[in-house]
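I'll show a sample.
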Amino acid sequence: MRARFGYLASVAVVIALGLSVRAYSDRLPAFLAEHAGDALWAAMIYAGLRTLFLRKTRGWTFFASVCFCFAIEFSQLYQAGWINDIRATVWGALILGKGFLAIDLVRYACGAAAAYGLDRYLLGVRKPPLTGE
């Protein structure tokens, strides 16, 4: 249960970071302002999937998060009126995006990879058992 709570807390932290990048993009270095939001979105998806599917491997979660992000990005090629109306809302734009950009695929892969790496490093490190005592 602690692990699930940790991943859920990670989702909240990453959402806050992502919204901060959007709100303060004019004060950030251009590279960070341009790319961090999408990478953080993918990291949030990774943490969300870890929350929901804790028994799955980290590798599975990485793969599933990249597939999910790619599916959302490719869905932006579909431009029907009803879905564009949803995308015109704040939440619709944040969740579904507005238009397909190939560079977003790279950003998503990097964000999910960073989340996977942090997950392995921060949460995957186990102390070896004490011996000889």
Observations:
- The chain has six helices and no strands.
- The first helix runs from residue 2 to 23.
